[in-house]
Each structure stands twice: as C-alpha cells, then as structure tokens.
C-alpha cells in the first residue's frame, strides 16, 4: 500500500513516488511498504490544514460535539483493538500483550479528552464596574504540527491528537518513519467517523525532510514533539523563526531511589520493570538505580540474578518477557554506550551483549546492569534508551536527593520507603515532572505528564494538556459606552 499519505481527506502517494519498507525488528520480516514523503508533501498537508482551520469546519463545531466525536473514536479503537495492537507489535517488535495494553490506554486518552472537551466554558473576570462584562475564553491555537516517536507510536500520537481535536484545531501528524502503520489506521478511523477533510493530515517519512517544515513553516501555529533531546533543540531553534508555540517531551535519565526500609522484593521487582520493560525504550525508564549503601550489595546481587533470567523474544512469543531494540542502528548506539561506560570504569554485572541463536535474527540486546559508576560518568549522565541500568549508592536522605537531582533531565523518578514522612519529603525535593512513591511507571490520562529541565517544555495529558492546544482570549465588553473626555474636543 503506497497511497499512505492522508492529505486533505484523500489517500495519496508521495509526490516523488518514493516508498519505504517497514520491517519487524524482532526478525527482519517485511511488514509493509509505505509512501516516503518529502517537504513538498508536508507543505501540501500544511496548506490543507490551514484551509480547513481557517474555513472553520471543525473549530465551529460546539465543544461538546467535538467531545462526542472523540468518544466515538475511543469506542472504535476498542472495537478494533486486536487489529491495532497487532500492527503496533509488527512495527515495533514489542510483545503483543504490551501493545494491547497500549491500545486500552489510547482509548482511555480519547475518552478523557472527549469528556473534558465541553466542560471548560471560560471564566468571568470582575472588572470592578457594573457596566462591564469581562470574560476569558479559550480558542483553538490553529494548525498543529505533531511529531511522534517510534517507541509508543500510537500512544504518543494520541496524547497529541486527542487534545488537538478537542480544542478545535487542525493538524499534520508526522510519526516516526520506522513505525507508521497504526498512524495510518488512526487516520482511517477519523475519516470513517466523519472528521472534515483537511482537519487531520498524515505524512510519513524522515524527520529531516518530511518533518522539518512543521517546525519552520509560517502557517503552522504550534509544533509538539516527543523524542530525543538533540532533535528537540533543532525543532525549538527552527520554530523560533516564526515564534510559534513549542511543546517538547525530550526523555529523561530517571532516578529510582531505594531506601533500606523499602519493601525489598517489591523494590527489586519494580526496578526490573522500570529498567527493562520494552527493553528500556521508554522515556521514563528507571535507568538510574540509587540505592542506600546498607542494602546495596544484596539489592544489586538480586537485581542481577533476576535480570539474567529475563526471557527475550518476538511479539508473538508467549514465553517472552521483553523484546528487541527498534533497529540495528539503535542497537549499535546502545552497544557504544555500554562500551563507553566500561572505558570510564563501570563494571558489567550482567548483559552487555547482543542476543545469540534465534535472537540473532533481530536487534536484541541483553538486559544489562552496570555498577561501579560515579556521578558525572557518561553512563549516569546520558540516556541509553535501551535495556541498561546503572547503580549508584547513598548514605542518607540529603545525599539521595542530591544524587537523584544531579541530571540535566527531569522527567520522572521514584522513591521507595515505608516511612511516609520521608516519602513525602523526598518526593517534594525531587526536580522531576512525575514522582512515584513505592511504584514505577503508571500514568493517568487526567494527570499532567512532562518534565523539568531539559526533559522538555509544556505538559501533555490532564487539563494542562488541553490548554497546550488553546489560546486564552480576554473579551472586555463595555455595555454602557460613554465619551471619556480625555482629549478636549476643540471643534
């Protein structure tokens, strides 16, 4: 299927006629062939979105009706869950059960914003004058460029599409070129349910070509990007030329702080989940274990024992517990990360190698634990975005907080302790956008998600996630206008 760009309500090929093969990273098998867009295609999509927004076909729809549409999207996603989940697993290589969970979360996201859409009617402001009605209203921001990553392709897209539509915007979606198929299915759903032509547009292709115009084009009012820090910096710089709104979620180097009084078994188990779910290809992965020195040796020994037993396999292998990395290039990047850590003095306690045997057909990297690391080392500072966890130690609460906050990121973190007071103190001092206490990884559609520092700008989900796609307007109505007399009438 090469007519896989969706522009102005029509499925079209790339203007160049170019295509891209999509292969399953678990075994290299061909998944599909899709159109490979270039800048010309993206500019056409932007033009379609601009015309649709300016024409008012969607933003003029009352907010409660837009919400009803999103609820219908949620229902359709639940009906087609198996189809969507399979497509997601084929593109990403992740286990089917994980993709199924993702689809439930995606439907919940659309349902949340569907219910939220009609609740905000603005607010009245007391002007201190009985003859003045002063109100704040919230309007759509306009044309939104949505750029999404390959690790949670449709989930990350849903976090942007749902609030963008709820607010009344038009958009152009540019998913990762590696994982396009659920974005294609999503456009089918929006089209089938009657979204006006041009409101939702899809371009597939590389970021440097298909994605670049979304950051710099004057007809794009906002760009929302989820992905790597360096790409985020490029997008922010490109967007500055037209002073468009920018929302960035740029990953993290997330601390998992474990005190000696924590529930030991639960802390170990969740440390594994935090580090190795989806082979660590998670922006909020607990890639830094910071454990109190009095239990560190016992904790790391148990973590290593458990990590060595993790079963790797493809998306439809029911015995598998985690899967491959997304590509050979990414596996090489993770390999280089571990090699650099060793060169700086880190010790590989387990893993540190590619999968062998049947696993050699895909891009597998063994769950890896690195200890003997120090603050300031590249392994502690940089994001691996793979199945690699580092171990640091601390002696007291102040040192734990200082170590956890010693990062230019600030997306998420966790604290494990049975002391409720300590838990609240540490959570309050951690400079991270999400802090879990005695847990790791859960999120809620109704709770804001985003980071401090270089983890990004803005928030997704929650009421603030909707506000990111809105402009606030002050309407000041003088119901009894009079001559001010400020300037003398010299007639």
TrEMBL record:
Keywords: NAD, Oxidoreductase. It comes from Georgenia thermotolerans. Belongs to the aldehyde dehydrogenase family. This is Aldehyde dehydrogenase family protein. GO terms for molecular function: oxidoreductase activity, acting on the aldehyde or oxo group of donors, NAD or NADP as acceptor. The active site is at 249. It comes from the Bacteria. InterPro entries: Ald_DH/histidinol_DH, Ald_DH_C, Ald_DH_CS_CYS, Ald_DH_CS_GLU, Ald_DH_N, Aldehyde_DH_dom. Pathway: Amine and polyamine biosynthesis; betaine biosynthesis via choline pathway; betaine from betaine aldehyde: step 1/1. Residues 11-475 form the Aldehyde dehydrogenase domain. Pfam families: Aldedh. The keyword Nucleus does not apply.
């Amino acid at each position: 299927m090469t007519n896989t760009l969706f522009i102005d309500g029509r499925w079209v090929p790339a203007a160049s006629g170019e295509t891209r093969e999509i292969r399953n990273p678990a075994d290299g098998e061909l998944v599909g062939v899709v159109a490979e867009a270039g800048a010309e295609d993206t500019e056409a999509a932007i033009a379609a979105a601009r015309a649709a927004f300016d024409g008012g076909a969607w933003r003029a729809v009352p907010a409660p009706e837009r919400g009803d549409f999103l609820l219908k999207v949620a229902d359709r996603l639940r009906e087609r869950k198996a189809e969507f989940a399979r497509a997601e697993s084929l593109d990403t290589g992740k286990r089917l059960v994980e993709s199924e969970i993702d689809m439930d979360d995606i439907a919940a996201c659309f349902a949340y914003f569907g219910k939220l859409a009609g609740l905000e009617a603005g607010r009245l402001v007391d002007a201190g004058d009985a003859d003045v009605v002063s109100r704040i209203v919230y309007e759509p921001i306009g044309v939104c460029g949505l750029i999404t990553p390959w690790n949670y392709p449709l989930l990350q897209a849903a976090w942007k599409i749902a609030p963008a539509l709820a607010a009344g915007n038009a958009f152009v979606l540019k998913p990762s070129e590696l994982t396009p198929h659920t974005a294609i299915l999503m456009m089918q759903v929006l089209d089938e349910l009657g979204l006006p032509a041009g409101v939702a547009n899809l371009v597939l292709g590389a970021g440097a070509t298909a994605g670049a115009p979304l950051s710099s084009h004057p007809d794009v009012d906002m760009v929302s990007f989820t992905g790597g820090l360096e790409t985020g910096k490029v997008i922010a710089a490109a967007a500055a030329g037209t002073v468009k709104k920018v929302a960035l979620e740029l990953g993290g180097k997330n601390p998992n702080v474990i005190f000696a009084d924590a529930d030991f078994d639960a802390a170990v188990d969740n440390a594994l989940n935090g580090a190795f779910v989806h082979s660590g290809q998670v922006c909020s992965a607990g890639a830094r274990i910071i454990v109190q020195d009095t239990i560190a040796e016992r904790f790391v020994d148990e973590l290593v024992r458990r990590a060595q037993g993790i079963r790797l396999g493809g998306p439809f292998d029911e015995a598998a517990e985690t899967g491959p990395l997304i590509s050979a290039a990414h596996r090489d990047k993770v390999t280089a990360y571990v090699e650099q850590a060793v060169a700086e003095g880190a010790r590989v306690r387990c893993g540190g190698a590619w999968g062998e045997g049947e696993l050699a057909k895909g891009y597998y990297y063994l769950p890896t634990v690195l200890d003997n690391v120090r603050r300031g080392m590249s392994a502690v500072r940089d994001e691996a975005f793979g199945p690699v966890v580092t171990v640091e130690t601390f002696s007291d609460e102040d040192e734990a907080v200082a170590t956890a906050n010693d990062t230019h990121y600030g997306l998420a973190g966790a604290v494990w302790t049975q002391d409720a007071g300590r838990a609240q103190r540490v959570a309050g001092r951690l400079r991270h956008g999400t802090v879990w206490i005695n847990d790791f990884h859960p999120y809620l559609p109704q709770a804001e998600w985003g980071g401090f520092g270089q983890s990004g700008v803005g928030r997704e989900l929650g009421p603030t996630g909707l506000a990111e796609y809105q402009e606030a307007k002050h309407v000041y109505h003088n119901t009894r206008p009079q001559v001010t007399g400020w300037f003398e009438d010299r007639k």
